[in-house]
Specification:
Layout (H helix, E strand, L loop, with lengths): L16 E5 L8 H7 L3 E6 L19 E4 L4 H8 L4 E6 L5 H10 L16 H10 L7 E4 L2 H12 L3 E5 L9 E3 L2 H11 L13 E5 L4 E10 L2 E15 L2 E11 L1 H6 L2 H11 L5 E10 L2 E8 L7 H9 L3 H10 L1 H7 L9 E6 L6 E2 L2 E2 L2 H4 L4 E6 L6 E2 L10 E7 L2 H16 L4 E2 L1
Parallel strand pairs: 1-2, 1-4, 2-3
Antiparallel strand pairs: 5-8, 6-7, 6-8, 9-10, 9-12, 10-11, 11-14, 12-13, 14-19, 15-18, 16-20, 17-19
Length: 426
């Protein structure tokens, strides 16, 4: 792969290029898709150093060139102009704002920079969605703990959720049930850096909402939004962390339409000014109706688009490529709701132990009737941590079957051997 030092060598302008900003997590699925369609790919790295969560998920081999953004937009634009770019898109959360700005300045299909901050900053997101008449969670952004306590007493009451404004994967998200607990969490997080290396100068405080949690994955093309998958996500309390994901279940499209989740999510996407590309919208379904948790203008992370494609026939990755490069194909797929061919569970592994990993016994899981695959983020000799968020999970197990009862039985068996300490030896 070319480096930043020799990017200005002449390029063949007959070659069609695609630029991807921060091709991390599921963003690493985009370049192979574009390459398979005859396009060359250039990677744009939004920071001088790769953020810690990107290590292991960035596949340099899929790119011919790498542009390292040093904070000077004109310089990065000049690099981009050396290529016959057909589109420029974000691969992951950290690349959204830079992709919006670069694609806008280059005259490519773009969501524009006007609402970029609303697509990354969780407080500005809530404000923008609320301005468009949609129900949102009462929220406060502040670095002042006294102001926060006063607001909680006057507006929400206990408990409340405390989270960083721009992180992901439930990083540092906590539920606080008292002033003393809140102050401990507030002071522990303010001023530290999140998983992407960004300093946390303010925190978001929100009223605690009870309800089923859903994810609506979609792709947009010229303002038309098409839902690719709807998921039920179940979280629990593990290792003193409040929002540890236990499993994701792929639902029928019609089930989410009936409870209003799909319509609400698509309205959120519109409110955030997203006209092009993939989105990942998380909502609570409450007795009063759906309410936004957050919406990200990028692919569903963790490689999930691969698994859902096997059950649906198409997915976010190929539909994203269509939205930018083959609009006719996009509209053909978007004519009808997706149909789930079989049931799909993605069980997140949850470790209650920590230390150097000496053994990982997965044979019992791999012999389950519904077992499809396993993706591990740790190998022998690595330090395994207690699972407190998406970043500290040892991996996930994909279960697929035509019979839901078979999957549910296998899922509970997986949890039982995990609880008995039979999976991880440290």
């Amino acid at each position: 792969m070319e480096t930043r030092a020799n990017l200005f060598q002449a390029t063949n302008h007959a070659t069609r290029w695609v630029a991807i900003v921060d091709a991390y997590s599921s963003g690493n699925l985009l370049a192979p898709e574009f390459n398979s369609r005859g396009f060359e790919c250039v990677h744009i790295q939004s920071t001088p150093q790769l953020p810690a969560p990107a290590h292991g998920s960035f596949h340099a081999k899929d790119f011919r060139s790498n542009i390292v953004h040093q904070g000077q937009i004109e310089e990065t634009l000049e690099h981009c102009q050396q290529f016959n770019l057909q589109c420029l898109i974000a691969g992951s959360e950290t690349g959204v704002e830079l992709a919006d700005l670069l694609s806008e300045r280059l005259g490519l299909r773009s969501n524009g920079s006007k609402l970029s901050a609303c697509r990354r900053n969780k407080f500005q997101m809530v404000e923008q969605v609320s301005r468009n008449g949609l129900k949102t969670i009462p929220s406060l952004r502040t670095s002042d703990s006294k102001l926060a306590l006063s607001w909680i007493e006057e507006v929400t009451g206990w408990p409340v959720v405390v989270k960083p404004l721009r992180s992901a994967g439930t990083d540092s998200v906590r539920v606080c049930s008292s002033a003393s607990e809140f102050l401990t969490v507030f002071e522990a997080n303010l001023g530290k850096r999140d998983k992407f290396g960004q300093r946390i100068d303010d925190l978001l405080i929100q009223k605690t909402i009870r309800g089923g949690e859903y994810i609506i994955d979609a792709v947009s093309c010229d303002g038309q939004h098409h839902v690719t998958n709807v998921w039920l996500i179940v979280k629990g309390v593990h290792n003193n962390a409040d929002f540890v994901c236990e499993y994701n279940q792929l639902l029928d499209h019609d089930e989410a339409v009936k409870n209003g989740s799909v319509e609400y999510a698509l309205n959120v996407i519109t409110a955030l000014g997203i006209r092009h590309g993939p989105t990942h919208t998380e909502i609570y379904r409450t007795p009063e109706g759906p309410i936004l948790i957050e919406c990200a203008s990028r692919l569903h992370g963790g490689g999930f688009p691969i698994y859902s494609k096997e059950c649906v026939g198409y997915g976010q990755v190929d539909l994203t490529a269509d939205a930018y490069l083959d609009v006719e194909a996009f509209h053909k797929k978007a004519q009808a709701p997706y149909q789930r061919g079989k049931h799909l569970f993605i069980a997140e592994l949850i470790s209650d132990v920590e230390g150097p990993l000496k053994g990982l016994c997965t044979k019992q899981i791999e012999s389950l009737p519904s077992f499809s695959s396993i993706k591990l983020s740790v190998t022998l000799g690595d330090l395994i941590n207690q699972t407190v968020d998406a970043f500290t999970s040892p991996g996930h197990v994909v279960l697929t079957h035509a019979d839901f009862a078979t999957i549910w039985r296998d899922y509970n068996y997986l949890r039982s051997i995990e609880r008995k300490g039979l999976l991880y030896q440290v």
